[in-house]
Amino acid sequence: MTIELKALVRTIPDYPKKGILFRDITTLIEHPEGFKESVERMASACRGLGITHVAGIEARGFIFGAGVAISLGVGFVPVRKSGKLPGETIGQNYALEYGVDTIEIHADVVGPDDKVLLVDDLIATGGTAHAAVNLLRRTGATVDHAAFVIDLPDLHGADKLRAENVDVSALISFEGH
Length: 177
Prior knowledge:
The protein is an alpha/beta fold. The protein contains five helices and nine strands.
């Protein structure tokens, strides 16, 4: 039996600000069968691609990325906000609506022999995902696949990644923001 994952995602209107329809995945991860199926669907789509690591973007990308990494039998790379990782890191700046932020990975975690799958819960404008792809590629790693639970196609984030030669997959699509 296939679970209708979209029905397990709660929509909260006007959060975090008026006019936004927030897609809340906590209701999906609280549902054991739905959570398991979402991880397995993401992993199944990437089997046979030679993936050596899964990189998950803080914070909800950790939830799905770790599960996908376990399912694929590969290592997990946390892509964190600046200042959260011990040891030597490399960072990548990216634009926010009002300012700039930075994400980081450990400097020695992946390299030219690695093929990394990027995972996050949602792709909207693609700013953080695009920065993560650039950051991982700076190590010499190959990053040509990204998997998301939710795509908001009207915000064109997946298109931004595709323009960088990244194959993008999503389990669920919600029109509008």
